[in-house]
Amino acid sequence: MPAPDAPAAAPRVLSLAQPTADSLHLGNYLGALRQWVPLQDDHETFYGVADLHAVTVEVDPAVLRDRTLRSAAQLLAAGVDPDKSTVFLQSDVPEHTQLSWILACMTGFGQAQRMTQFKDKSARMGAEAANVGLFTYPVLMAADILLYQADQVPVGEDQRQHLELTRDLANRFNSRYGKTFVVPEPHILASVGKIADLADPAAKMSKTSSSPSGIIELLDDPKINIRKIKSAVTDSGREITFDEVGKPGVANLLTILSALTGTDIVTLIDQFAGRGYGDLKGAVADAVTAFAAPFRERTLQLMADRTELEAILSRGAERAREVAGATLNDVYTKVGLR
Length: 338
Description:
Order of helices and strands: EHEHEHHHHEHEHHHHH
Strand order of the largest sheet: 1-2-3
Number of helices: 12
Number of strands: 5
Helix content: 40-55%
Largest sheet: 3 strands, parallel
Radius of gyration: 22 Å
Distance between the termini: 44 Å
């Protein structure tokens, strides 16, 4: 009798988070990290902290080390399971920078120059202040992805151009040297709607542009976030409706409550019929606290006794290097380096 077909391998997913702040904020979590967790159940997942990317701007070494570990701890606190996922630090896997050099030698200067994020950031910083690392950032990102032969990459719209560069480089290398890299597909994260600044609901909640009163830091004391939510800008009138133009503050609170409770906005509007903004703010504060309090407790626990965290990252780096090393060895052989 013929042998039964082997079960199909689970598609592989790769995603990294930059350690650019002391705490994730609610927009980070709802927009991306929350959606990493269910992928673990039916994908082979590689999740890491992109600490090499963080040095494209000047940062105090002690701060970077602390933020890197905090970022890893927050991945775990959010539900990334090291028994299901490979969790690692980018800098623990030197193959990232080694492959980045090979890919940089295949990237056209004009192509790199057209990357929107580089153009935007260098325009803000000024040409003299922008560094070469910022310019080649998308090439290192391509190496991050291609090293692990990722089938899918969770991306938002702001990273789609970088993924297109990754796909282009994979196809270019495969065409020149033979099939080597999986050409990754985007895994577009489902939108939960824009999470806006509590103090300025016309703006996106952002670590770089939001005021302290407008951003919900997940590692803040719950009392601080409750106070911010209770003080959130709403709108004139009392009726609770979803109108992003006429009532952006109320719409933002409904979006947050819907995302955290899984209740659709239409149902929420029915539930709050005849009630005021204070009731809505109270419900949002309760929902944020229900998630953020245990998230904060677990993160701080991992940071207080780092034995478990260091062990998880060590195991993850070992597994990551197994996969990355095999890819890099194939690449070096094909380009004639050994």
